[in-house]
Structures are given as structure tokens and as C-alpha cells.
Write a structure and sequence with these properties.
The chain is built from five helices and three strands; from the N terminus they run ααβααββα. The protein is of the alpha+beta class and about 110 residues long. This is Metalloregulator ArsR/SmtB family transcription factor. GO terms for molecular function: DNA-binding transcription factor activity. It holds the Pfam family HTH_20.
Amino acid sequence: MADDRLSVIFAALADPTRRAILARLAEGDATVTELAEPFAISLPAISRHLKVLEQAGLITRSRSAQWRSSSLNPEPLREATVWMERYRQFWDTNFDRLDAHLKRMQTQTERNEK
């Protein structure tokens, strides 16, 4: 189940418009109209992006009279970060080993040139 949830989260994050919407919501709640301002796309297109973000759990939407605002829900981002952190540690370790190997090779080459 966790992998399926991560797939939905990463699929939602794959789109640059949705990432920009999340960045805007990190500053505070916003309406569809406010979220649409920087984009050259229609309000229905923004609404579709919001639906994807909501289905991924990345945002929550509320209604107050005629206004419908969206809020950032950071928990799914934390889940994705925790998952990626394991791989960051793996790559950091491998890059450190590669760096040490390259330094040994460089030192050996310098010795051979003398």
C-alpha cells in the first residue's frame, strides 16, 4: 500500500505546474483564481491539477460560502522525503567511495610520473 501511495504522490509531483501550485500553497491558503494567476492556462485546467494534488493527499480543499480554498498538506511530502532519504544515503556512501578511489588513482598517477 505504501508503494502505491508513493506512486500517486510522485505522479502528482511530476508535473511542474503542480509543483508550482504546491510552492504557492506553502506560503498560505489560496483560491483557484489566486492559484491560476501566474499560469497561462484555464481555471478548469487548474482545477484538474488541484484534483490530482488532492487525490495524492498533498492538498486539502475547503469551501466557505462561494469561495473554495486549497491548503498544503505536508505529510505526503514527508513520506516521499523519508523514502528518498534511504537512497540519498546510499548514493552519498557510493560517491564517497568513488571520490576516495579517484584520489588514490590520482596519487598513484602522480607517483608514476615522477
